[in-house]
Design brief:
90 residues, mainly beta, single chain, Immunoglobulin-like, 1 helix, 6-stranded antiparallel β-sheet, 58% strand
Length: 90
């Protein structure tokens, strides 16, 4: 059993053209159309146009970005109460 302490995670968007994401563990990849971030709550995929990763702070685990945000999607967060056996027998 893991007693991992999760980083606080927030997403703040202003007018779909600037965003601040806290709780970023890793910037996996980015280009002008996609930014992929790893958080303790799953992988966050940001899609849009003219996306630019601006200020990245590893001290506060914060990323600021600009561009036109079209979608946000989380992937990979597993239900903590789900047992190993129940995942095998889906």
């Amino acid at each position: 059993m893991s007693d991992k302490i999760f980083l606080p995670h927030t997403v703040t968007m202003e007018n779909r053209n600037s965003m601040t994401v806290t709780g970023v563990v890793q910037v996996v990849a980015y280009d002008e159309f996609h930014i992929i971030l790893k958080t303790d709550y799953g992988t966050l995929l940001i899609r849009g146009r003219d996306l630019t990763a601006g200020e990245i702070s590893s001290a506060s685990n914060t990323l600021k970005l600009t561009g036109t945000v079209e979608s946000l999607q989380y992937k990979g967060m597993k239900n903590k109460s789900e047992s190993f056996m129940s995942r095998i027998f889906r």
